[in-house]
């Protein structure tokens, strides 16, 4: 059996969680972008897909949302449950499988932060998100910017293929993720029944300039991630 996403992250879950809590790219780049696209979640039901160590879930709870979600890594789910003090319904679940425990049309917002590129059948997952979303709901997701992979890996920008590499230049965190052009990503959104309401190429949070000046300079000139707010076709 091939390695799952949960298997990948189990090897370095604690190291990654400590990194993500304060790192430039997570704390001061992706989280502000994703939570900004999420908007006002007070009184809303939010599904945090690939919840990781619970950093987004905790913030969503603090903003008044009812939170449920999942991750394929048991270690991450345990950490997320502790971080959310049992206030969120978080389960061990691989997003390659249907969300059979979530009722159709029961969720106002789905959040998928930096995980879409790990999924082999992304259209199937997106369709499952559409199923659990209420008619007026939305999906907010972030993923690696397609030009980032192209600059790092070379070859044709239009290549669509899985790549095995380390998640970090500084750590041995082996992962398997898909590189693909923006055209493919947008086609998958459309095929799954979503329209792009907003596309965001994030800018770094201002405080990054003081804490991580080199990262701030780099991210001010060129995006690392890309984020979307999608709505179901009605």
Automatic annotation (TrEMBL):
Signal peptide segment: none
Swiss-Prot/TrEMBL GO biological process terms: methylation
MF terms in GO: methyltransferase activity
SUPFAM superfamilies reported for this sequence: S-adenosyl-L-methionine-dependent methyltransferases
UniProt cross-references to Pfam families, sorted A to Z: Methyltransf_11
Highest rank taxon of the organism: Bacteria
Residue ranges of every copy of the Methyltransferase type domain listed in the record: 48-141
Keyword entries, A-Z: Methyltransferase, Transferase
InterPro entries: Methyltransf_11, SAM-dependent_MTases_sf
UniProt name for this protein: Class I SAM-dependent methyltransferase
Organism: Actinomadura graeca
